[in-house]
Amino acid sequence: MTLEPLISDFYGFEAQLRDHEKAALAALRADLEQHIKPIVNDAWDKAEFPRQIIDVLHQHPTFGELWDETKTGDYSALYGGWTALELARIDASVATYVGVQNGLAMGSVGVCGSPEQRAEWLPKLRSGEVIGAFGLTEPLSGSDSAQGLRTTATPDGDDWVLNGQKRWIGNATFSDITIIWAKSTEDGQVKGFIVPTDTPGYVATKIERKQALRIVQNADITLTDVRVPNSLKLTNAESFKNTAGVLRLTRAEVAWAAVGTAIGAYEAAVAYTKERHQFGKPIAHHQLVQDLLARCLGKITASIALCVRVSQMLDNGEQRDEHASMAKAFATTSMREVVALCREVLGGNGIVLDYDVARFFADAEALYSYEGTREMNSLIVGRAITGVSAFV
């Protein structure tokens, strides 16, 4: 299958993918256009997750390509980034589902799990047989998770007993397992646990009335004396440094998803300018409209360039925290500006769901904040620049 160039890939960055990666991306794009794009506005409006898309997504080499246990071929981190972009240009919630399943849940097991845990859980997560969630954020702990976790893990014989609360946990209303991060009462260090969601004392409640990523099923989780066997403690999760290792892998893909969200709005805006007539001609003929589109494309192009380089660095084993953080901060800030400009192009129709831009505009706010706010990522970059930490 031939990969047709996106109108938003102005400098042709997709050309850096290898032939089999281009074919795989083209197949993913075709399925997204045929099976998912037609239903996302309705699902967004109803705040429902269309479960039928799980099988569509999991048949593609989108999941598990970082782990030997689940690889379906030779795919690069650069390809993984492009898949995040491709998903988000259709819908940011769909990209978020994949990011949670493939990056945060699988990443936790892949980075912190024992060989036995990896062999048991990664293939099931890759195939979609098991749906995962990632429980780090809490009602009173977000950016300060390294020190501020209040969920506790207490060793008790061959088990651990978990108590606490989690918030904003994606996929959590229908996940089979949730990776819960909790502070040990024994040594004060953050540990990770694979928690089956049917464990007594585990309760997930959907967060209602969201105005962004409405398709994502975010939940509040309450853990009341949840007993987890030691075999489900992630063997190599002994401090927040290990948690950060998972986030390092996924932060760059959030940057890619931000670019995809911007592109989704931009492509909808470009199409609109050719159909909408004012003053006797399509608005694409007007200078001010072309200026808005050119500004959008410049921001998108700069963001793609950053993301491409960050993924290449990951492939080469060169990526550091500050590299992913700069990409995430820049791409999400640019995304926020692009979706606003696209909303402007559409005028009043920019707030109507039928024209797509309103959905991208709203969803951008969530991507701007999750997996590290702009301010937190800027401090990570600032520490690399100055050699001095400015974190409180």
Question: Would you kindly provide a written description of the structure presented here, covering whatever features stand out?
Answer:
InterPro entries: ACX4-like, Acyl-CoA_DH_CS, Acyl-CoA_Oxase/DH_mid-dom, Acyl-CoA_Oxase/DH_mid-dom_sf, AcylCo_DH-like_C, AcylCo_DH/oxidase_C, AcylCoA_DH/ox_N, AcylCoA_DH/ox_N_sf. The chain has helices at 19-46, 53-58, 77-90, 92-112, 115-127, 145-148, 240-275, 287-315, 321-346, 357-369, 374-386; strands at 132-135, 152-156, 159-169, 177-184, 190-196, 202-206, 219-229, 277-278, 281-282. It has 392 residues and is of the alpha+beta class. The protein folds into 3 domains: 13-127, Butyryl-Coa Dehydrogenase, subunit A, domain 1 (Orthogonal Bundle); 132-232, Butyryl-CoA Dehydrogenase, subunit A, domain 2, CATH 2.40.110.10; 241-385, Up-down Bundle (Butyryl-CoA Dehydrogenase, subunit A, domain 3), CATH 1.20.140.10. The strands form 2 sheets. Strands 1, 2, 3, 4, 5, 6 and 7 form a 7-stranded mixed β-sheet that branches. Strands 8-9 form a two-stranded antiparallel sheet.
Topology at a glance:
Blueprint: H1 19-46, H2 53-58, H3 77-90, H4 92-112, H5 115-127, E1 132-135, H6 145-148, E2 152-156, E3 159-169, E4 177-184, E5 190-196, E6 202-206, E7 219-229, H7 240-275, E8 277-278, E9 281-282, H8 287-315, H9 321-346, H10 357-369, H11 374-386
Parallel strand pairs: 1-4, 2-4
Antiparallel strand pairs: 2-3, 3-7, 4-5, 6-7, 8-9
Helix pairs in contact: 1-3, 3-4, 3-7, 3-8, 4-5, 4-7, 7-8, 7-9, 7-10, 8-9, 9-10, 9-11
How far do the termini sit from each other? 51 Å
Radius of gyration: 21 Å
Strand content: 5-15%
Largest sheet: 7 strands, mixed
The overall pLDDT average reads 94
CATH architecture of the largest domain: Up-down Bundle
CATH level 4 superfamily of the largest domain: Butyryl-CoA Dehydrogenase, subunit A, domain 3
Oligomer: single chain
Alpha plus pi helix count? 11
Give the tally of β-strands. 9
Helicity range of the residues? 40-55%
Which fold name is given in CATH as the topology of the largest domain? Butyryl-CoA Dehydrogenase, subunit A, domain 3
CATH class of the largest domain: Mainly Alpha
Instruction: List the domain count as a whole number.
Output: 3
Low-confidence stretches: none
Silhouette: globular
Family: Belongs to the acyl-CoA dehydrogenase family.
Domain Acyl-CoA dehydrogenase/oxidase N-terminal: 19-129
Organism: Microcella putealis
Keywords: FAD, Flavoprotein, Oxidoreductase
